[in-house]
Each structure stands twice: as structure tokens, then as C-alpha cells.
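A quick aside before the break. I want you to see a complete sequence-to-structure record at least once, exactly as it would be stored in a machine-readable document. Don't worry about memorizing anything.
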Amino acid sequence: MSGQVSQHAVREANEITMGQQFVLIVSASIFSIGALGFLIRKNPLIMFMCVELMLNSVNFLLIGYSKFLHSLDGQIFAMMIMAVAAAEVVVGLAIILTIFRTRKDMNVDHINVLKG
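That is the input. The structure line, written in C-alpha cells, reads:
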């Protein structure tokens, strides 16, 4: 019996575990960088990259806490977020390319092409 306990303790001591605080801090910092980039930058391509950064930080948080709670719900939600993000990128890039072809300007403040 004691041989099994010691092997289990040695195996746990050699594993590197990721704590809940680490997941929360990394996710919050990545989300903050994305939000700050979205608010500061005026280039629509950079803004879309910042939105994707924010979505990926949420995915990291969902998957990390899914592991801690021993549930697959977070991973399922992360997959749905990735599908929505892919569709958002396709539509957003199509709009940006259309505006760039007509205006040759990539500043968000100067875009009023879509006004009817």
C-alpha cells in the first residue's frame, strides 16, 4: 500500500499544474490588451485582431475553468465562440476590403461609406 502512495506522490510532485489564479490573470491581461488596442487604434484590421484577442482570452478562461470543474461545458462554449469568431472575421474582412477599394483609406474615423 505504501508503495502505491509514494509513487502517486512522486508523480504529482513532478507534474506542473496550472492554478486557477494563473488562468484568471493571463486571461484578464490578454483581454485587457485586446480592449485597450481596440479603443486606441484606428486601423480596422488591428481592431479586428484585438476583438479576436479578446475572444481568445475568453476561450482560454472557459477551457481552463472547464478543466478545474471537470466538465466539458466550457470546451463546448469555446468551440461555439470559435465558430462565431470565424464567421465574424469573414464578414468583417469583406466589409473592410469593400471600403478600402472604394475609399483607399483605412482610418475608422473617416469611414462613412456605409451611410445611406
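Two observations worth writing down. The CA atoms of residues 52 and 85 lie 7 Å apart. Residues 2-110 form a domain with the Helix Hairpins fold (CATH 1.10.287.3510). We'll return to this after the break.
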